[in-house]
Amino acid sequence: MIVGAVSALLFVLTPSAFADWTWTSSISSWTDGNTSRRWADESYNEISWEGCFAQYGTTQQTVVKRRIDVSLASDVTVDTFTFSNCFNGSGYYSTDTQTGLDSASYYFEADKVAQGGACCLLFADWVGVDTTQAD
Q1: Has residue 135 been placed in a domain?
Q2: In the beta sheet, which residues pair with residue 66?
Q3: Which residue segment(s) compose the domain that 94 sits in?
Q4: Are 35 and 122 in contact (CB under 8 A)?
Q5: In the chain, which stretches have pLDDT less than 50?
Q6: Residue 108 belongs to a domain with what CATH number?
């Protein structure tokens, strides 16, 4: 009985437990303006981070931009969101999903790590991008 309760709790704490992640990675020593790798997408994407920390930060959060990579022109910001829950420690996730997106090449950018500026370094134990809404 206890094993079942623990398994159920773990399922609730993991983002999209059965997600077919497009890619996963980690973040080490990012500051404002650092960007992720690009991914091709149509209609939906989910960005999730786990186990975050802002070294030298007076606030433990990061403002993140979801952007479209535009060839030979300025990139376009699709939305901006704040990740804070993942800063509660290992096993805590921050997730943002967006639907109705154009077919394009996307990436995310750390817009404001902690209080912003070059003060702080961002770390995340795990980062995932999922482009399949069905899972």
Answers
A1: no
A2: 79, 108
A3: 2-130
A4: no
A5: 1-13, 18
A6: 2.60.120
